[in-house]
Amino acid sequence: MDEKRIKDIQKSVAGALAEERLKRAIDTLGEGIDELQDWELRTRYTEMQTAYRYMLEYLRQGMPDPDRERLHGELIGRCYVINDQIAVARLTEHSTKVYCQMRRKYKGVSEADGVYARLRENFANSEVAQSLPADECRTLNARLATEHEQLLQQLFGILWSSNCWSKGDAENIYNCISSAEIALDDRAVAVSAITLSALKCFEPLKAITLCKLASNPESLLSTRAIIGLIIVLFTYRQRIKHYPEIGNALAALRDDATIMRRIETIQIQLLRSRETQKIDRKMREEIIPAIMKNPNLRGNKLSMDILKEIEDDEDKNPEWKQWLEKDEIKGKIEEMSKWQMEGADVYMSTFSQLKNFSFFGEISNWFRPFDTSVPAIAAILPKEIKSSTSIISAICASPFFCNSDKFSFCLTFERIPKEQRDALMAQMTGADQAEQQPDLQSVIPADKRAEVESNQYIQDLYRFFKVSNYRHEFSDPFAMSLNLLESEALAPLIESNDALLRTFRYLVEKEYYSEAFKAGRSYEKSGECDAQFFQEMGYCLQKELRYKEAIDYYTRPDIVKPDTLWTLRHIAQCYRMQGEFDNALAYYQMAEELAPENISLLLQTGESFATMKQYDEAFARFYKVEFLKPGSLRATRAIAWCSFITGKDEQARSYYKRLHAMPSASYQDYLNAGHVEWVNHNNAQAIEYYEKAKELCGNADKVAEQIMHDSETLTARGISENELLLLRDLIL
């Protein structure tokens, strides 16, 4: 059976289970069991099938069964697990992928016991080596390092490829990872292996083990376990309700304030990972080219496109500075620095190109905490790297680089000829740098260490799933939203008011308005909402084009903070988008009283008056804009069009000539000038303008359609419907 057929069957069973069509799923699984010589799986399937038959028999006989609902859900959960394990077993026989090769190489999770023991011995011997004479110490350390690399790869392979876990297996794995008799970095790699194993083949005991490890006092292990747990449970969020034991384990986490704070931080970091692709594109296409070029571094007549207006004009409330401050960033480097300080992944574009070293051919190395004693690095870098005064050590200790990128940075020296490398090292570790390079690791406060570790690990995972040679063996978790509020099982982990509000405002800032509104609805139940919150909720709805609901939220802060300019303007915009121009105008006028010389507000109010055919009021505001901001493109267009509508053709001509002289003149400016001449029977001049409009537009059909769109205005100026039809044909 080929891989596609195996995966199609697996998906079919999962679909039946999602619809709770248990019989169909069990029958299909039975066919798969018959093809395998796996007695453990067969036993588990038979037990499940028997329980299902008893449940149906009790129902047929009308016997009371208070556990029926619980058992039904439990059987669905067991079916999910067996379905995945059957698929993995089939793929193991047929697939050439690395995961299946590992499964053929390692026969079960129990094999890890011998590896644990040898790692403990290796770790103990490395401690003893420090007390030996220098030569003996060096020889022993070299042998231990080689042995350690082999053992770590074996441990990762066994845990990653493990399928069925017993409670004994889970307890043994947890105890070994919790034990200080094995190096901390090795235990961190083991946590990553469990995460990958659960992603490949879900097993409740794997998730529960990650839950338990989340409480480990070592922040390196705790943060990795939390991140792994979130990614795994979010990936399988539709089925988690069928495993009450997982729900109980999650509930236990909620009693630990430290873990809950870490989860809140990790949620924001995971949401921030969505920005990596945008930042990567901007780095490659804008910022890096701009820096490289720097020698020092080496539709509507009255601009009534309200959506664009909202984008361009004081869109987000400047009073939301705490979360939404968007000061103009001067220069590309400052923009990159801002992202960096926010914890954004600014180095993906640089280091994604440096992942083709043989070091990354070993899957476990993608998840190793950075350490210069790793043999591949120790063979390249000089002993001076241990000095906190070298440029290299500053980069290696920097919280801004993830572990994977630090390895890439060091491995680049491998490609430099030795003589040049030695000279470069001498410069980069020179005494003249001693006062310039701080020990960055030492300045990270203890309470921020976990935050740095989790951010680095998320970036390590992002690189693995995006650029590693193994990425095709996994579904990319970073293609999901990773918003915990979208998972019934995970949402309670960020249910505190502070966590909800922080998540809500982050989503608003990053313009995920639909998700933000849902988060805001959860926070709204707290009863602690202020005017700013209601403004932000209205803003999300306005961005989602839900104008009526937006007005409802905007009017709430208007009660708390009456006469707020920003709120009045956005209420007016919503009414305008609904076509309620009289209501829009009322709010624009209230706003105008607060800011009588605000250019964009004057334009919006004038356009609203023009829409209501109150042209004297409209002209008054457009002329005021022209006085306050000479050469305003938008005011010039508005005056020109209103002049045409009101029959002031000479004034219209004058203003359209001004527009034609501007470099930003559009096809509409020539089209409208053509209208002025056509209604005055200056047909030759009109046609000249229409032809210019076609040239700028590049689409004769669009110009012709626009003429018909303006038919009401043109017929009001004396052009017959028949003449309009002929004019359209003439343009075409």
Keywords for this structure?
732 residues; 38 helices; 68% helix
Describe the structure.
This protein is mainly alpha-helical and 732 residues long. Helix content is 68%, strand content 0%. The chain contains 38 helices and no strands. Helix 6 runs antiparallel to helix 7 and helix 10 packs parallel to helix 12. The radius of gyration is 33 Å and the shape is elongated.
List the helices and strands and how they pair.
Layout lengths: L2 H16 L3 H13 L4 H23 L6 H27 L3 H8 L6 H18 L4 H28 L5 H12 L5 H17 L3 H10 L5 H17 L8 H10 L3 H16 L3 H18 L12 H7 L8 H4 L7 H11 L5 H4 L23 H4 L12 H7 L5 H9 L6 H11 L17 H22 L29 H13 L3 H12 L6 H13 L3 H14 L4 H13 L3 H14 L4 H13 L3 H14 L4 H13 L3 H12 L6 H13 L3 H15 L2 H10 L1 H6 L4 H11 L1
Briefly characterize the structure.
This protein has 38 helices and no strands. It is mainly α and 732 residues long.
Largest sheet: none
How helix-rich are the residues, as a percent range? 55-70%
Low-confidence stretches: 294-299, 303-308, 322-330, 431-441
Mean pLDDT: 87
What is the general shape?
elongated
- For the record, give the distance between the C-alpha atoms at the N and C termini, rounded to a whole number: 60 Å
Number of strands: 0
Count, helices: 38
Instruction: From the alpha carbons, calculate the radius of gyration and give it in angstroms.
Output: 33 Å
Backbone structural class: mainly alpha
Beta content: under 5%
